[in-house]
Amino acid sequence: MAVRTRLEKMAENRARLIAAGRQAFAEKGFAAASMDEFTAAVGLTRGALHHNFGDKKGLFAAVVEQIDTELSGKARACGIAAGGGWEGLMAEGRAYIEMALEPEVQRIVLLDGPAVLGDPLQWPSQNRCLQATIATLQELSAEGRIRSVDIEALARLLNGMALNAALWVAASEDAAATLPKAIAAFEALASGVCVDG
């Protein structure tokens, strides 16, 4: 029982640090967020941060993973609501791009994320999204609804378009004005793979 209690306490501390880091990174950005401030805010020490994540960058990666996983889940729900298939895939892409308007997503995932963690296409959460896109495209290909092209290549390009559209929206001076242009271009380019009729 003592081992289970210790493991539960470790999981609780990890969750508290992620929540505190998420708030600090959203409010101040990665560079200005102070490890001492957000560990003290949840009654933990810098040692707890190092034990769970190694350093501030490790905590930031965990926060990005959490938010990006949430984004993928929300986008997936939009795809299901749209009926799945091609329409669902486009709904997922639109939803992902639209989430670039959320301040927390802009700051943590789309602006600081690539600067701190490197190429988003290499993040574990993005890889899971890629695998889901591949599965959908394989189904569409089997149904004859898309042109005969390499499925992985197509999935990587579609996901890359959605990601780059979101990055553009997040970095633009007027994100709300950029959003409809980004979505329209994403849909126009993506539609080229559909079989007519």
From TrEMBL:
Coiled coil: none annotated. Residues 11-71 form the HTH tetR-type domain. InterPro entries: Homeodomain-like_sf, HTH_TetR, Rv0078-like_C. One of its GO terms (molecular function) is DNA binding. SUPFAM superfamilies: Homeodomain-like (SSF46689). It comes from the Bacteria. Keywords: DNA-binding, Transcription, Transcription regulation. Residues 34-53 bind DNA. PANTHER family: HTH-TYPE TRANSCRIPTIONAL REGULATOR YJDC, TRANSCRIPTIONAL REGULATORY PROTEIN. This is TetR/AcrR family transcriptional regulator. The lineage of its organism: Bacteria, Pseudomonadati, Pseudomonadota, Alphaproteobacteria, Rhodobacterales.
